[in-house]
Write a structure and sequence with these properties.
The chain is an alpha+beta fold and 700 residues long. The strands form eight sheets. It has a nine-stranded mixed β-sheet with strand order 3-10-11-21-16-15-14-12-13. It has a five-stranded mixed β-sheet with strand order 25-24-26-27-28, with helices on both faces. The chain has a three-stranded antiparallel β-sheet with strand order 4-9-8. The longest helix has 20 residues. The two termini are 51 Å apart. The N terminus is likely disordered.
């Protein structure tokens, strides 16, 4: 999957261009992979698109573009500002200091690609999972399963992962350090562009930009040619690189004390759904469409993970497999998504060096940009969910033919703009019937659905008449396999079977050559005959088509944090995590103005009532002043704070503070638990909102 890149952004090239302009300043944003995390100069909009033309990054006009209408239906990310270097440093500091997430096993030196979630991070991630389950599984009536992470070799061999689930790797011939080839090429291009910041060599600049844009979709031959043509060496030592080789990303192990049973840690959750298709279809009454979901851990042995939570070796996925009825490509709920406006970066636009385009999903399907309504429906559903998680800058990028997964017919990634650039968070693939067909052929278990015809249909078929006695004498223990092979030959290679029969009748062939379990056998002509006949069918079996949205929950978690992070004014000590209430680690915090003996019993009383009502409430009874305790809650994203002060002892009221506005109202203590619960559960209702609370209760 295509990702952003870690490391310092080579910003000097763009900075020199932009600071040289004398036009009045106007803030704008671009991505780290394009050159800068944040730029705040120049209204000369013609400069940046020229630089970004080949990089697959968003153009400046679109970043600035403010769009009206319903924010749930409109991709309006003009006001979003990617974290600049100073903000990113503050962000990283808060994440570590508050133990939101951190590299695993640090006291032993740490391990790349493995991360621990602290109490705050764990709570936020769990809330994202809960929100995902409600938004997709409950809302759309999906069926949910849970399958093992340990997967037998034969399962992933059938699915194609054993042979094809690879990245290209090169090795430093001096140090032995390994690099992922496409990422190394991208870094080489960035370094080269930094050296040529004044663009003295226009031709080379264009070549570097084009090379960087193509790096992720290159074949092994193209990678080798690029390394040779541009003399690309190790960025660590400057040494020569080995030839690129495919590296399988799956962790391999064995089951039990003997080494005879080879297994892998699953690279995706989907295969457990496909292997259980027959039982799931029975559970669903044999009816399609049918949608199955699974949330769980997946594992990929990344070559050189460098992007924090964005590229892990152990990560959590939430995947959906939507099985379609025979010949169907629509979705019953598509009408609800047809008018959703999305930012699309099509394969054609990428190949032509063009920018993204804005359109509705209905129009995109009508124009043939998105292949069918089912795929478009999930693009719209995904965008709405990402917005619910507080993510503002979203686009959908279509995979080029050379970067398509081995099972995919079409693929669109939901990418989010953050300090690493455009990052894939959700993949949407039209898998056709690849997986069901491969597992059926590998196991001889038909993973098919039945279509009942309204009227009987006639169909020409070729049937094999087999002399089982002769087959038994000729092939003995293998006779059953030979019979099955002859029946499949008649079914799948009807024309060839009839040609053999014609030759047999004319006295030509003496034997039929047939491959049985990787061995070519000669079947005596006397053992079998073929004939064409017409059968009358009342229905037919078929392999259902599958549309798959696949969510990387850790990436979604990280991007939600970045998009929520800001500082009050220009004070980088006053950081805020403006998370939506639905995914905040705590819905409310309980504070006493001080640790006075008169106040704390009231604090404990209200805290207990909050917990009884199901409000996830954090109690802070430390001795720090109230301002510092508010700041502590702000930087971990707690949306509401209830404070007991000395007035509470007199009139029984407490203050309720809202995080982002810092506004406060006084509420009777017996009403505050229900009010907080209502504000959290009915956050989109105009009748139960912070604005309504301000009208009802006196401000402080």
């Amino acid at each position: 999957s295509s990702q952003g890149r870690e490391g310092k952004a080579p910003g000097s090239m763009l900075l020199l261009l932009l600071l040289s302009c004398s036009a009045p300043p106007a803030p704008f944003v671009t991505s780290a992979s394009s050159g800068l995390r944040f730029v705040s100069s120049s209204s000369s909009l013609h400069l940046l698109p020229a630089v970004l033309k080949h990089t697959g990054r968003i153009t400046l006009e679109q970043t600035l573009r403010l769009r009206g209408g319903d924010s749930n239906d409109c991709n309006e990310f003009g006001g979003y500002q990617v974290l600049n270097n100073e903000m990113r440093e503050s962000f990283d500091t808060v994440m570590k200091r508050r133990f939101v997430f951190m590299q695993s096993f640090l006291i032993h030196g740490g391990v790349s690609g493995l991360f621990d979630y602290g109490p705050i991070g764990c709570s936020i991630k769990n809330n994202i999972v809960d929100a995902w389950r409600k938004f997709f599984v409950v809302s759309d009536g999906m069926l949910e399963v849970a399958c093992p992470s340990i997967t037998p070799h034969r399962v992933l061999e059938a699915s194609g992962h054993v042979k094809r689930f690879t990245d290209l790797m090169v090795r430093d011939e001096t140090s032995g350090e390994c690099f992922r080839a496409d990422k190394l090429i991208e870094e080489f291009c960035d370094v080269d562009l930094m050296k040529d910041a004044k663009h003295s060599n226009e031709t080379r600049r264009e070549m570097m930009m084009s090379l960087k844009a193509r790096a992720g979709s290159m074949t092994i031959e193209q990678v080798e040619d690029a390394i040779s043509t541009f003399n690309i060496t190790s960025l660590s030592t400057g040494a020569k690189l080995s030839k690129p080789l495919p590296f399988n990303l799956m962790f391999k192990s064995t089951i039990g004390p003997s080494s005879g049973s080879s297994v892998f840690l699953r690279p995706e959750t989907a295969q457990g759904i496909f292997t259980n298709f027959k039982r799931l279809l029975e559970f669903n009454g044999g009816k399609l469409p049918m949608t199955i979901a699974q949330i769980g851990k997946s594992f990929r042995n990344e070559i050189a993970p460098k992007q924090g939570l964005l590229r892990q070796r152990e990560f959590e996925m939430a995947e959906i497999e939507h099985f379609l009825a025979n010949g169907e490509t629509g979705h019953v709920e598509f009408c609800k998504m047809a008018d959703v406006e999305v930012c699309l970066f099509s394969r054609t636009a990428q190949e032509r060096g063009e920018a993204e385009s804005w359109t509705t999903l209905g129009q995109a399907v009508e124009d043939g940009i998105i292949v069918n309504q089912a795929l478009a429906y999930f693009l719209g559903k995904t965008q709405k969910f990402l917005r619910q998680c507080g993510i503002k800058a979203i686009r959908f990028r279509q995979h080029r033919a050379t970067e398509m997964a081995h099972y995919a017919q079409d693929c669109w990634d939901a990418e989010v703009l953050c300090s690493y650039g455009w990052v894939e968070v959700v993949g949407h693939a039209d898998r056709a019937c690849f997986d069901l067909q491969m597992h059926s052929e590998a196991t001889d278990v038909p993973l098919v659905a039945w279509e009942q015809h309204q009227e009987p249909r006639e169909r020409r078929v070729v049937q094999a008449t087999i002399d089982r006695a002769l087959i038994g004498k000729a092939f003995r223990a293998r006779s059953k396999l030979v019979v099955e092979a002859l029946e499949k030959f008649a079914e799948k290679e009807g024309e060839e079977a009839l040609a053999f029969q014609k030759g047999k009748e004319e006295g030509a062939p003496e034997a039929l050559k047939l491959r049985v379990e990787e061995e070519e056998l000669e079947i005596p002509a006397a053992c079998v005959s073929f004939k064409e006949t017409i059968v009358r069918e009342h229905g037919a079996f078929y392999y259902p088509r599958v549309v798959e949205p696949s969510f990387g929950l850790d990436r979604l978690f990280y991007c939600s944090l970045e998009h929520a992070f800001y500082v009050r004014g220009n004070d980088h000590e006053r950081t805020v995590l403006g998370l939506p209430v639905s995914i905040a680690p705590f819905q409310c915090c309980m504070l006493g103005l001080s640790s006075n003996d008169q106040l704390m019993p009231i604090v404990y009383e209200i805290h207990e009532e909050m917990r009884k009502m199901g409000v996830n409430c954090r109690l802070d009874d430390s001795a720090a002043n109230i301002g510092k305790r508010y700041a502590r809650m702000d930087e971990i994203g707690v949306p509401f704070a209830v404070t007991v002060d000395f007035q509470s002892c007199q009139d029984g009221t407490v203050t309720l503070r809202e995080r982002d506005s810092m506004e406060q109202v006084r509420v009777p203590k017996e009403e505050v638990p229900q009010l907080v619960r209502s504000l959290c559960e009915a956050r989109e209702s105009p009748d139960v909102s912070w604005a309504a609370a301000k009208e009802r209760y006196p401000s402080v």
